[in-house]
UniProtKB/TrEMBL annotation:
Keyword ATP-binding: yes
Entry keywords, A to Z: ATP-binding, Hydrolase, Iron, Iron-sulfur, Metal-binding, Nucleotide-binding
Listed InterPro entries: Mrp/NBP35_ATP-bd (IPR019591), NUBPL-like (IPR044304), P-loop_NTPase (IPR027417), YlxH/NBP35 (IPR033756)
Single GO MF descriptor: ATP binding
Stated family: Belongs to the Mrp/NBP35 ATP-binding proteins family.
Binding site for ATP: G23, K24, G25, G26, V27, G28, K29, S30
Subunit structure comment from the entry: Homodimer.
One Pfam family linked to the record: ParA
Record keyword Transmembrane helix present: no
Function: Binds and transfers iron-sulfur (Fe-S) clusters to target apoproteins. Can hydrolyze ATP.
Stated name of the protein: Iron-sulfur cluster carrier protein
Amino acid sequence: MAELRVALTAEKRTRRILAVGSGKGGVGKSTLSANLAVAMARLGRKVGLVDADIYGPSQPRLLATEGRKPEARDKTMIPVQSPWGVPMLSMGHLVQPGQAIAWRGPMAGSALGQLIEADWGETEILVVDLPPGTGDIQLTMLQKYKPAGAVIVSTPQDLALIDATRAIGLFDQGKVPVLGLVENMAGYLCPHCGQVSDPFGHGGAEVTARELGLPFLGRVPLDIAIRQKSDAGEPPAAGEGPQAQAFATIARAVLAALDQPA
Ligand SMILES: Nc1ncnc2c1ncn2[C@@H]1O[C@H](COP(=O)(O)OP(=O)(O)OP(=O)(O)O)[C@@H](O)[C@H]1O
């Protein structure tokens, strides 16, 4: 028993939570979380993923585990293995697809706790895809589970960046170090004419990061292949080519920041 306790303590100490947040919905937080987890796993890390976006869980779709039910051992959930080398848990695994989840704060908080306190085995980095916004659930989560760091996702336009700044405030309040900002949907490469245009502006997140004194971790272009592959449950980070490279670059920057001694 004593040995088990030692093992559990050691395990707890070595596992770090990486929170992925955004102020605004729909900016690609879930897409980044999934692909960051896959990209870090490809770099040889043991990575797990928790979909804490309890009101609109999308990770089962993104990582092709829709319809799978996690098993439980002694009331502890066992994560579902995705085909991409990343074990995962999502509220989407616990409810029927498409079923509305209308929980009040405390219930939502305890459900999230079950996902985070599951049997993550050897997982060393647990990526947590937070619900959008800066409400109570997010703050409670941060205070209770003390992520080692947070990554903020934003599109380049001003409104999203104002919300991203609010999300940074949330992490500051929870005393969680913000590792940096990722710009998503930056530059649209037209598959027909080959021209690059900037529907949401360009470089806004990099400027905001600089203004806030935060590292800029990289950008992901607005690319129809990313949406198509994501919808098909094939994370672009698991493939080859420019999309996979974009996520690998961000994963390296995140790991460098995460591995830095405090
Ligand atoms: N770089 C990109 N290029 C093309 N499509 C993208 C890109 N990033 C995200 N998308 C698409 O945009 C939509 C929203 O992305 P996603 O669900 O990741 O956002 P979110 O911030 O997690 O939203 P939510 O508010 O649901 O939490 C999805 O259809 C996704 O496939």
